[in-house]
Amino acid sequence: MAPTLLELAHWSTWAVCAVLKLPQLAAVLAAGSARGVSLGSLLLELAGFLVFLRYQIYYGYPLQTYLEYPILIAQDAVLLLFVLRFNGNMKRALLYAVIFWGSWYVLTLRKWIIDLAMNLCTFISAASKLAQLRCLWQTKDSGQVSALTWSMSAYTCASKLW
């Protein structure tokens, strides 16, 4: 019974990750605004995902252990573009792309760099959530933040812990 439940959790996590950011994207597009969505939070989350993906690839982990991360990164990149567009900062998109692309290669210049970055991933992820909560607290308005996206994210975190 336990292996079946683990397999169900595994596949359901992949399925949820495949559509995780879609409710958030839909909310931002429908409103034509990124009010309440923290740019800093999004950048931190994207950085954490990139570090995790690079670490998994660097150490040769099986694809199924990190397959959801390229999907999440793609969704975050699209969301980042929408947030930049609706905040009037599209010129920064190229800067962020160069920084993330450069970081992708810098991470593996030395083994200790990728190891340190991976050790900081939990902190980066927590900082991302705190940045979003801070944004919500400061604006006193959830704006276009999707509760469904946050709920699905909580599910994937819980299923990975299990």
From TrEMBL:
GO cellular component: membrane
Signal sequence interval, chain numbering: none
Membrane topology: Multi-pass membrane protein
TM regions (residue ranges): 12-32, 39-57, 69-86, 93-113
One Pfam family linked to the record: PQ-loop
Main location: membrane
InterPro entries assigned: MannP-dilichol_defect-1 (IPR016817), PQ-loop_rpt (IPR006603)
Subcellular location: Membrane
Keywords, in A-Z order: Membrane, Transmembrane, Transmembrane helix
Alphabetized PANTHER family for the sequence: MANNOSE-P-DOLICHOL UTILIZATION DEFECT 1 LEC35 -RELATED (PTHR12226), SOLUTE CARRIER FAMILY 66 MEMBER 3 (PTHR12226:SF3)
Protein known as: PQLC3 protein
Organism for this UniProt entry: Asarcornis scutulata
